[in-house]
Amino acid sequence: MTVLSLEAGMARPAPVQWLLWLALAAAAVTPWFAGPFVQHLAVLTCLNVLIVNGLALIARCGQLSLGHAAFVAVGAYGSVLAARHLGWSFLPATLAGVAITAVVALALGAIILRLKGVYFVLVTFAFGELVRLALLDGASWSGGANGIAGILPAELAGWVFDSRASFYGLALAVALGSVGLLAAVARRPFGHAIDAVAENPALAESTGLSVQRIQLCAFVGGCALAAAGGALQARYVGYVSPESFNASISISFIIMLVIGGRRSVWGGLIGAMVLTPLPELFRGAVQTQHIFYGAALILILRFLPAGLAGLPGPWQARRRKESQ
Amino acid sequence: MNQPLLQVTGLSRSFGGLAALRGLTFSIASGEIVGLIGPNGAGKTTAFNVISGAMPPSAGTVQFDGSDISGAPPSRVVVHGLARTFQSTSTYPGVTVAKNIHRGMLSRVRHSWLRRLAGRSEDLLSADEVAREVDRLLTLLDLQAWRDAPAGSLAYGLQKKLGIAVALACRPRMLLLDEPAAGLNHEECNELGRLLRRLRDEEGLTMLLVEHHMALVMELCHRIVVLVQGEKIAEGTPQDIRDNPAVIEAYLGAPDYAHA
Q1: What is the CATH number of the domain that holds B212?
Q2: ipTM of model
Q3: Residue B94 belongs to a domain
Q4: Count: domains in chain B
């Protein structure tokens, strides 16, 4: 029971929790009964949940990656090239894409995780551009600016995910799986260690937590989630090109994370659910939508630093005070 | 005296052309409380940082319980049983006092998790044991009343005490204290002295403290090492140090008649 009281601050009051679960279940089921456009948005949302959860894992230990789209790209191209040149089927090709990305993240992270704050942000931004330019330049293997088209749909144990509805099922499972993974990590000693490293690296180091090793684990794990998202995206769209992974895509992942909530397990899910459909709804305002994003970001950072996931917080606090 | 717990030999550290620490040699036996004093800029903090692993030495060795730990990062030094506190307060301000202590124990929990993978689970700290240890440390440091308060909301003196609790959560055999009395009022200072003595008697802790508060150092320490401009100028019991002319000169300047 003492262990429970360590976590007491995390528990939500029961009615709110049930309402949220119900809303989530409804949102998850709706696309199967809606038109193709909604299904398309739902698939993109699920893939973004997966990718932003990867970014959340990295951000949780105190580092902000501005090159997250590059790891999505490495995963996408890696899996597509493995399928194309080695003739691998969906699952091994995807795992190959994830593994390649993990190795790249390990090599890069071992060097750049020594940097803090804005320096880390700048180097990851540069790495993102480097990957994009390499893909543009390597026409012989990456197809250059034309990208690679005609990617076969995902196929698992005889099931072919070639329709929007069926692929949505796959994407939803993976997205929810990534939220579950994040929640499981957060409860484990490793998750506590990540939080400790983020809050006070010097103290964490002096109590026996290797800051570099923990940040490296989180970085590799986060990039691997991004790669899985990239590999799935390539299968869904059937096409990859360098411009789908530029810096503004990386920024949009960060915006999703910040608006959703950086410190919450649910931040990636909420951010992706809110911000993936938004540009589609504001199609008529392509030029001005970024102004809205900027304004929303400033307002969130000013008034809701814990993001939308932190919304029940003040309400909860009041409730706790009343119950005392 | 048997083999010393901490043996520092010929320790030097320079920053560019500045030699902050030159050939420092001293040892601490198990159960001793040793003070490291000296005027500002004497190299106390440098010595402290090099011993705790926050920075590597330019030359010399640090041996703890027979194994060479010179140049090892702090997270490795702690595993050997040598923990440190910080000069100003250093806590996880956003989480509760209990959670702060819990985080201090993580290296022990995680270590055993790795060992469990390797099939050696004897060091595993169960959730019950973690909870019990948190409670024990809260009681030991008299922090129970603030158990569920965010560490950042605590008064300065309490935060310093919490810093000691977090360091103790690593279950060290020796504690390096960086100016534990800095910023404490008279009463808190007396309480700190009692606490440190109790830690030595009840927990069998060996301690090295860097401190400016002379009354505390003189009263608490078995031995004192005096640093001036990166070099050890004296070592001995508080009485020896009090009467040592070189120390008096370093602190107060040479009396006029010395030049006459």
Answers
A1: 3.40.50.300
A2: 0.85
A3: no
A4: 1
Spatial separation of the C-alpha atoms in residues B122 and A86, rounded to whole Å: 46
Give me the residue spans of the domains in chain A: 49-246
Query: What tokens does A25 get?
Result: 């279940």
CA closest to A199 among chain B residues: B92
Report the distance separating Cα A35 and Cα B17, nearest Å. Answer: 73
Tell me the nearest-neighbour CA distance from B86 into chain A, angstroms.
Answer: 8
**Cβ contact B103–A8 (<8 Å):** no
* DSSP-derived pairing of the beta strands B82-84 and B174-178: parallel
The answer to whether the CB atoms of A207 and B104 lie below 8 A apart is yes
Q: How far apart are CA A68 and CA A48, in angstroms?
A: 12
**pLDDT tens, residue by residue, B121-162:** 445 567 778 888 899 999 988 888 988 999 889 888 889 989
In chain A, residues 160-199 whose CB comes closer than 8 Å to chain B: 189-190, 192-193, 195-196, 199
- Structure confidence by residue, pLDDT tens digits, A97-110: 999 999 999 999 99
Domain that holds residue B62: 6-77+173-180+206-258
B104·A190 Cβ contact <8 A: no
* Measured distance CA(A201)–CA(B86) in Å, rounded: 13
